[in-house]
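Sample 1 of the test manifest.
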Amino acid sequence: MPSMSDDVLVFQDEPAQGAPAKTSTQGWTILIVDDDPDVHEATIFSLSGLSIHGRPLRFVSAYSAAEARRLLEQDDQVAVILLDVVMEDEQSGLTLVRVIRDELALDEVRIILRTGQPGYAPEMDVIRDYDINDYKCKTEFSRTRLYSTLTTALRTYAQLRALKISQQGLERIINASGKLMSEHGWHEFSLGVIKQVTGLLQLDPQGLVCAYRPQQDHDGLRGAAQVLAATGRFRGLEQQQLQALPHPDLVPVIQRGLERGQHVFDEDHLLLVFTTSQGSELAVYLDKPRPLDETERQLLQVFCSNLEVCFENLSIFQQLEDFAYRDQRVGLPNRIAFERHLASETLPAGYRLSLVDIDDFGRFTDTLGSQVGDALLRQVARRLRSELPEAIFIGRIDGDQFGLLGPAEQLVPERVTACFDRPFEVEGQRIVLTVTQGFVDVSQPGGDALRQAGLALKRAKVERRTGALAFSDDMQTDAQRQVQMLQRLRGALGKKQLFLAFQPQVTLQDGSLLGFEALLRWRDDDGQMVPPDQFIPLAESSGLIVGLGEWVARTAFATLAQLQARYRREFRMAINVSIVQFCHPDFRAQLHDCQVSAGVKPEQIELEITESLLMARDKGVLELLEDLADEGFRIAIDDFGTGYSSLRYLADLPIHQLKIDRSFVAPIVNEHSKTTLPDMIQRLGHELGLSVLAEGVETQVQADYLRRMGCLEAQGYMFARPMPLAELCDWLDARLGSQE
Ligand code: C2E
Ligand code: MG
Ligand code: MG
């Protein structure tokens, strides 16, 4: 038989770890099982009015083993059973003990066996195997004795109960952690936490707010705490800022908790706070309908340390995801995220995808530096977000291109453009931006919307700047045709389908020959001539122009050398140089190589560049231009007047010639025609000491007009069309006399 005094000592010396909270009003249920009604009465009488461990006693009576069994099957609150051994038969008390432990599996309930027959001892193994607290003759139970036996039994019961709860709790924690580990989104994770914590404490899963303060955002400011999940009386507060919650009593508590990074378990609040090594914070607030006992607090502690691991893991996962799906510079979802959203979201009908591209953005980054450029992009993102609140998704698709997704009737081009009406302010500079848009109405998720909007944008850029275009089916066919054309163009050089045509440049004074412009020609597989206006942009956008351009330079310079030798005089040869080509790191070396191997002088070579190359005001570009001009190469600005050159800085550039675009020459139909542009360009050139050449001169009227204006040089069908070399030689033979 276990020593009762030992038992008492052990538990009395220990702090009331497993003991129930003092404030509990719940009583202890004592079941008296005895076939003698007097025993019931006497027991209740002797214990009446007493409380043990701060809780009153509640008595339940059974007069037979069978009745006791029924009672126990229904009432799981019984803490101690005072059990008579001999009732219906000699063994009925002991049989009931076996039933309680084996069948009903009530392990915590304490059993005190009483017998009316002194000297009758139950089998020792029953006491050992069935966890009997005491075995005494009824007469031995004085009031004090009964009280102290009950006190010990109840303490043990409370401890076993607490252990059981914590064991269940630990199981729940392990389960919960497993579940939370597999959550990949903040919302689900937060809801999971609410569910698991309330489950653990056996509270209603209600009245809980999770707030999360993300790490510093891109402006270096600490993000505001936001509600990630809310249930019960907090329902509906999701996504709101903590500050704005309609719970003035609660906000400061959560805020203080977040600031201190500490849990709060006080009388009124239950707030759990978690911090990751990267500094993200999560606060879990629960309404507390009842005080927590010591076991629950301890469980909560264990749970919190487990939760912290889950939170850390999720943060890392989220960070990785952030890297993959968020543009780190601007802090917006990136292209992949945008595509994912488009594919996954079942977009309601009437949604529109709009691509917004900042015009000439490169100009700002080139002149103001990439940091200012980034800050500018961030401002654009912020502006779009605040002025187009109905856009459900905004992302940075590419460099200076943003994607918007929203209801079609709201996402009209005018509204998007209006976002750019006010200038942006970056580092004290006011910057005005214009944009081009391409948009498409999204018919189904996972479709081609992004690509279609991209095509519309591309077309919008080509056709009219600072405009917007909706996608149409012909763009699709166009795009397909272009892809095919590009494939054919790749093979063209090898198949010797490319050749140069040379168009003479002459003086307007007497038509004497100055030189030639080399123009690329392509006769494709079917023998059809493909106009350069079609294949040059394609070669530019694919980078193919770099190789093609080198071939043009090599062929043109070699031809120049050949012609000079043949006609024993000097000409100049103009070649067109695309921006892509000019900016290519190998351009300078290639140019030199072509020039040197042809054995012609740089002074005889004219490089036709476009205004947009100068627009960028790129330091490297300008330096290269200076260097080339210093070496003697002539620089001409092609199609002058169609671009956006600020005429002011032309004076500083190492340029030799302005070529008046033929669109300004065409309107000259008679001598009274009013075309101010050629005149302006002519005067500008004169002032800056540049030669001016008029392109596309087709008629005598035009030639006379231009000559009167003071223009000295021209090129056009009136003098000669661009001609392949053989034809050019005939033309030259006729003019300069055959050299054969
Ligand atoms: P561009 O450099 O302005 O070339 C002048 C264009 O005007 C040529 O068109 C020429 O054939 C055309 N043209 C010349 N005189 C007249 C005229 O009296 N009336 C009319 N209506 N047109 C005239 P083309 O050859 O079709 O070339 C178009 C554009 O393609 C060129 O414009 C140039 O920007 C580009 N391009 C041509 N060859 C090359 C090349 O080798 N490299 C690069 N990067 N671009 C090239
Ligand atoms: Mg040209
Ligand atoms: Mg031109």
